[in-house]
Amino acid sequence: MAPGAGRGTGQFYPADSPLHALDPRAKILAVAALVVGLFLVDSVAGFLAVGAALLCLVQVSRVPPSTFLRLLRPVAVIVAFTALFQVAFVREGEVVFGLWVFQAHSEGLRLAAHLALRILLLVAAAALLTATTPPLSLSDGIEDLLSPLKRFRFPAHEIAMMMTIALRFIPTLHEEARKIIMAQAARGADFTEGGLIQRVRALVPVLVPLTVGAFRRADELAEAMESRGYRGGEGRTRYRELSFRGRDATALCIAVLIPVGGILL
Amino acid sequence: MRISLEDVWHVYSPGTAFETVALRGVSLSVEPGEVLGIVGGTGSGKSTLAAHLNLLLRPTSGRVLVDGRDALALRKSELRRRVGLVFQFPEQALFAPSVEEDVAFAPRQMGLGPEAVEERTAAALGVLGIAHLARRPTRALSGGEQRRAAIAGTLAMRPQVLVLDEPTAGLDPFSRRELLGVVRRLREEGTSVVLVSHDLDEVAEVSDRLCVMEGGAVRAEGTPEEVFYGELALAPTTVRVAARVRESAPGLGRPVSYDETLRSLRALIGG
Ligand SMILES: Nc1ncnc2c1ncn2[C@@H]1O[C@H](COP(=O)(O)OP(=O)(O)OP(=O)(O)O)[C@@H](O)[C@H]1O
Ligand SMILES: [Mg+2]
């Protein structure tokens, strides 16, 4: 398997789809448009319309929906909590129903629904971007979009490179953590028993070697990059040039129209 | 103790795009007191197999038996203590400030008292020949010394079966020989050893039995003599040379290790 293919992290999902073929800049701008748009949408019908459009895009992306569900599950927990909070503490509008000492007001329910749908759709849109864009293209795209700021000495290249490296090493760290956990478990470490303090203490034998390994890797990588002539963004050319074509413009227009549709509803 | 695998299959990340079938119906046993060598190419499933011997990985299907009983019925901690597993590059999991403390980790986890912990730590360091490094910081050791410290960390549990996954990978020839010496010594003391290796010469030298893995399945199994002379493609260079010489000199016998081959050849020339 190619390194960085993201085994088990649920990020990039290689497939042959129109979304995968788009210019990363178009996709980043599209997601940005969606994010802004989602903050302007103000009706449940509007959110559902945007959700339906995203579902169509998932279909087009040929990424199995289960991949997204896996990403959305942890977010859903947080969303559920915030929504409950809204329902419990917003006191505007009429009382819809009561439970124990809490009363759900219509305004609270409305806000909770909006908040939950907004966050879930934001995450889904971002997940669609990372699932269909290899990390390298993603950071190339970001660098390109940030490059006008270079005039103001903004380190666009360095930031993009840091992002690429971080993304590249997520699966590696994941794999290394898995190995170290297994090795310590073989020596009798137990991560599942005892109280909170005991569990935190049980993590020391994992975190120490993991950190040491990460620093060693960082050193090795820096040496390898320098020995191959890396010297930052100045005058650097790219192996793969990005090209923004007609279809990318079309895709961007569609992406802008999706939330506009949602706002009008 | 005797560990047997019965028709064990293992699938990594089932149901995802990265699904990999790493073991395809492996049946194999580790007999009490033997050295079992496991060889095979990269990705043939050796490490996956090794991690099944103490159920750090569970079979997707099939069973692991310990002395005839299903290993799943044993307590996890008990099984991990009786079957000591040393992973590939175990030095990456060293974490304590000093060698001594790192080696003491496992016996402490077993809940032993301070004297017993100390005694086992000292004994394990002694077997690996690194008693003099006990108080050194783990990070201030050479790679080979770190490897031995890590192996001592598992040996301190006094396992009945010690599983070593490529213990000699990346070591210099001298450290290799020493480590093979440790394997022989453990065998003499009655510990079974499972030795996973890429180096045919080294497994030929210490193994009572061999298992050749290929594509997640057992390709061949038996004494080194049976396996190597059964299929010369699997044999180390010394055995291939011996087999060629045997064609014209049947008196050579079927030597397996370097020493045996040398002795047989000398006898042939001398007599
Ligand atoms: N954590 C994992 N997730 C997914 N697939 C894995 C994982 N670990 C191993 N594999 C795959 O399972 C197969 C067997 O791997 P295993 O590590 O058991 O091989 P090996 O014989 O030990 O190889 P090597 O000699 O390189 O150590 C390989 O195809 C490997 O890519
Ligand atoms: Mg291996």
Give an account of the 3D structure.
The complex is a heterodimer of chains A (265) and B (271). Chain A is mostly helical and 265 residues long. Chain A has one domain. Chain A is 70% helix and 3% strand. The model of chain A is unreliable at 1-10 (pLDDT under 50). Chain B contains ten helices and ten strands. With 271 residues, chain B is of the alpha/beta class. Chain B folds into two domains: 31-50 and 75-224, 3-Layer(aba) Sandwich (Rossmann fold), CATH 3.40.50; 236-271, no CATH class. In chain B, the strands form two sheets. A six-stranded mixed sheet of chain B has the order 6-7-8-3-9-10, sandwiched between helices. A four-stranded antiparallel sheet of chain B has the order 2-1-4-5, with helices on one face. Chain B is globular. The longest helix of chain B is centred in the middle third of the chain and has 16 residues, at 173-188. In chain B, helix 3 packs parallel to helix 5 (143-155) and helix 4 (114-127) crosses helix 5. The termini of chain B are far apart. The A-B interface holds A 1, 5, 7-8, 13-14, 64, 176, 179-180, 182-190, 204-206, 208-209, 212-213 and B 13, 16-18, 51, 54, 56, 77, 80-81, 84-87, 90, 92-96, 105-106, 109-110, 139, 153-154, 157. Adenosine-5'-triphosphate binds at residues 12-13, 20, 22, 40, 42-48, 88 of chain B.
Name the beta content range of chain A.
Answer: under 5%
Query: pLDDT below 50 for ≥5 consecutive residues: which ranges of chain A?
Result: 1-10
Give me the Rg of chain B, rounded. Answer: 20 Å
What's the CATH architecture of the largest domain in chain B?
3-Layer(aba) Sandwich
* Average pLDDT, all residues of chain A: 83
Features:
heterodimer; A: 265 residues; mainly alpha; two-stranded antiparallel sheet; 2 strands; flat; B: alpha/beta; Rossmann fold; six-stranded mixed sheet; four-stranded antiparallel sheet; 10 helices
